[in-house]
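Sharing in case it's useful to others searching the archive later.

Someone asked me privately for the predicted structure of DUF397 domain-containing protein, so I'm posting the question and my answer publicly. Question first, with the sequence:
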Amino acid sequence: MTEITWEEPFCAEGNSCFRIGTDADGNAFIAIAGQEDTYLTDTREALSTLIRDIKAGKADHLL
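And my answer, the predicted structure tokens:
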């Protein structure tokens, strides 16, 4: 099993809280707070790109 170091949960108004984590192999993880056993994983670079794109509004059409 992968040893994941989770950050504190991030919660937006009216939305589910999520957590970002990393492991010693350079992978990044994102999960809903309280459901860390079910996560999405990719490289740290890919997760950083995802977060930057969301902040830039590139995923607004999904809301």
